[in-house]
Design brief:
Length: 299
């Protein structure tokens, strides 16, 4: 099973605090940690841990953070031979996490802003060899579109995780096989000011008429809509919730692996929900990406 990923890598600087500071306020007593992140890298590592052969395209700077990323991918068994080094700092995110696990994130894209469609051209053979391409929105919009079109031209299915929320041109949207928004992202894609899953799915179906849509709803579970049937997937309850950062990446990686294994959509979504539940019970993203044995018997 082969998965190609076009997406982001960066370093997360996490501050854990009892509450968010008010405007102009300084809080002390927080705990600090530094760790790798970026949705593309997270999803690549998540898929590799669950048994996929993964190739990654992203951009990093010629700095210590970029070098740490390359060492991480080597250690996790992700093929990073296509990762490009550009003249900018590696992407950095500042993550504020409250005691209840909710988070707020600010990102400085740095090197990711210099990722180009030409880099996708150099990654085309890896996309062609894959069973699935995963792509998300933490990279320039023209790179997302190029990746989707390259996959379609090469006969590779596409999973588009529209995170952070940003729309696709309609001709590219028509090429998406699997769409995995959360409620907020679905609102942006549809322009609707509602969190009602069925209303959002109806509107998404109009925009992504040929896609299988997996709408994630946090603690309310997920919905799977293949254009014929619509099914609610109950949530998998976490033993505890300490950090929601990376839960979506764990979900997407597990769903991609399960789909590549040929599992039906309901089973794949339940497996993905179990991965998300595992993630929120762990501090930081990489420790929260499960291995196969962490999820127990196939759901």
């Amino acid at each position: 099973m082969r998965i190609a990923v076009v997406g982001s890598y960066g370093t997360g600087m996490t501050m854990r605090t009892s509450r968010m500071p008010a405007r102009g306020e300084t809080l002390s007593g927080a705990a600090f940690s530094l760790g790798p992140g970026g949705k593309g890298s997270n999803q690549a590592i998540g898929a590799a841990r669950l048994g996929a052969e993964v190739a990654l395209l992203t951009a990093v700077g010629d700095d210590v953070l970029g070098a740490q990323g390359r060492e991480l991918w080597r250690r996790e068994g992700v093929d990073a031979s296509a990762v490009v080094t550009v003249d900018a700092s590696t992407m950095t995110g500042v993550i504020l996490v409250e005691d209840d696990g909710e988070n707020r994130i600010i990102v400085a894209p740095g090197a990711l802003d210099l990722l180009r469609p030409a880099h996708v051209d150099g990654f085309a053979d890896a996309i062609a060899a894959a069973d699935l391409l995963m792509v998300c929105n933490e990279i320039p919009a023209d790179v997302v579109v190029s990746a989707v079109r390259t996959a379609a031209d090469r006969g590779t299915r596409v999973l588009f995780n529209p995170a952070p929320a940003r729309d696709l041109p309609q001709d590219a949207a028509d090429l998406v096989d699997l769409l995995t928004p959360n409620l907020t992202e679905a609102q942006v894609l549809t322009g609707l000011d509602t969190t009602a899953p069925n209303a959002l799915l109806d509107a998404l179906r109009e925009r992504f008429s040929s896609s299988t849509i997996v709408l994630t709803c946090g603690t309310d579970g997920a919905y799977v809509d293949d254009g014929t049937d619509r099914t609610r997937i109950p949530p998998v309850r976490a033993a505890r919730v300490v950090d929601t950062t990376g839960a979506g990446d764990a979900f997407n990686a597990a769903f991609a692996v399960a789909w590549c294994r040929g599992w039906d959509l309901r089973r794949a979504a339940r497996y993905a929900a179990a991965a998300g539940a595992f993630a929120v019970a762990h501090h930081e993203v990489i420790p929260g990406l499960p291995h196969s044995e962490d999820l127990g018997p196939a759901l």
